[in-house]
């Protein structure tokens, strides 16, 4: 991560994906493919000078301008204030059947609000890159349905995560022993038993894990982004593939109630 200048702070990620550069490019630039790992709705006007529009169930929306479109190797987009834009740059290289995707997000600047934005993007990309890799390697070509429950709270993030991982919500077995790449087991309040593997872990802020019992869904539990000086927004986000729509809707409803009850 680069933090040396007033506007040159950046977040850099390298992801190894078992797949072709064409598959990775399509996941980044095709509207239908984007909805299978990133937003819940998207529109793409391809080519340099084109646009990519994103929406997360209408709660968050944004549009990025395409600055570089070099299929299937190099994509760069910008968004925000044109006089001080944010940029996302994607570089794709394939060797021996494995594709390496380099993502660089930059243009954060400094100051309290920019610091919060920087941290939100940094934590957010940990999930999004895990979601991209997981989709392409395990669910490629399968439409996604999302159960997304969220609420706001004045509780500290560390306490929020302790409550969410505790017996009143996720019921994670031995949460103090969670490790990146290791197994995950839980007895959630919503019912049943969940197990999988940890794909991202930021203690006290974020947990990303698979859920084998839900057709290898990808779960994100997070308490990071400040809504204002007093509140943070808490997310329960479940990316599902091949599950009945009614079941996913029921999970969203159940977890909305669980969050409200757990964080009251």
Beta-strand percentage?
Answer: 35-45%
How far the N terminus sits from the C terminus, by CA atoms, comes to 37 Å
Q: What are the segments in which pLDDT stays under 50 over at least 5 consecutive residues?
A: 1-7
Overall pLDDT confidence: 93
Element pattern in H and E: EHHEEEEEEHEHEEEEEH
List the helices and strands and how they pair.
Layout: E1 10-18, H1 21-29, H2 31-34, E2 41-44, E3 51-56, E4 60-70, E5 74-79, E6 86-95, E7 98-106, H3 112-139, E8 144-153, H4 157-165, E9 183-186, E10 194-202, E11 206-211, E12 217-226, E13 232-241, H5 245-262
Antiparallel strand pairs: 1-7, 2-3, 3-4, 4-5, 5-6, 6-7, 8-13, 9-10, 10-11, 11-12, 12-13
Features:
disordered N terminus; 5 helices; seven-stranded antiparallel beta sheet; globular; 13 strands; Alpha-D-Glucose-1,6-Bisphosphate, Chain A, domain 4; alpha+beta; about 260 residues; single chain; about 40% strand
